[in-house]
Amino acid sequence: MNATRQEAPERREIEELLPWHAAGTLSRRDAQRVEEALARDPELAHRYALVREELGETIHLNESLGAPSARAMEKLFAAIDAEPARRQAASLNFGTRISEFFASLSPRTLAWSAGAAAVAILLQAGLLTGIMLNETKTSGYQTASAPTADPGVGAFTLIRFAPQASSDDITRFLEANKLSIAAGPMAGGLYKVRVAVTGIPKAELARIVKKLQEDKVVSFIATIE
Amino acid sequence: MQTTSDEVLISRIAAGDRLAMQVLYARHHVRVYRFVLRLVRNEATAEDLISEVFLDIWRQAGKFEGRSAASTWMLSIARFKALSTLRRGPEDELDDETAVRIEDHADDPETTLAKKEKGSLLRQCLTKLSADHREIIDLVYYHEKSVEEVAEIVGIPEATVKTRMFYARKKLSELLKEQGLDRGWP
To answer: What is the complex's ipTM, to 2 decimals?
Structure first.
């Protein structure tokens, strides 16, 4: 009978994780479990040494495979040039701009924003009422995606995103709701977000805010009057 | 120095930015090529596939949602292309000359003879594994993919990923034993 099948399920479970532990791709929790098991089980430690050998030789083997010639790249870009033209690259979609914006922030900046948000939350209600919405009486709802819109015109809200929301989450949220960030981050990690390129009735704005509030990426939202 | 993330590059590619495509290609084409080559085992076929894989990336960039790492998404496309090619033509499946040549220049002059022989034998046996086993070993050891990412690329449950990796390693040990190298496991 195969010896590996007779072993305790816990050892087998840990042993199955050894390749990922060697490659450094386990979660911290699993890595700690494996480390503890290796420290108390010499047989497991021996098997881990075998895994490390395999890892080293697999890398060696792959690194010896060389690279494709320049012909592959030439062929690729000839094919790309033959593709139908797309919308101009300069008009990057909104998601790209938001992704780039978040990518440009250092972790320290992001951490500061989150921390400041926690401190400032109690002050926001008072501040919000002081910011005037440039509201016109035009009826109807228009999306915020028009690139020619005057940045100062439209209907706005103030939003603070949930600290656990990733930039991808926020990008998806903004795109799905056709929103654009007009300014921010401001004190307290707040962003001025445009919900329409023209002013809209208060009732309509309230309805939109209520809908947006239900999204988990939104930690705080308020209208600007 | 901060470099543009793969996700941002892909967004730019979706908008038709050819330069972003060049950057992404320069960043990833070698690893994607090696992944494909290990699957199809033919350099000419792998090189043709690389162009096709990146052309697909160009075409599908707008569909990339960033739910997984860009490299995981690209390897998924590469795998699909490689397996489609293997299904189309059995003549592409094996190129033993490639495997043999890999071994020819695999020795490391710095190591002892015994270690050299053991390492060389291990690499030789790595090339003899089945396509499924080669693939999972490469994804875990060379492409540094987590259990979850391998599951996404290969399209199997995470529990199966762990089991398949275990049996790939077991098979590797058996092949080594057949070659006279008993590692004491399994």
So the answer is: 0.85
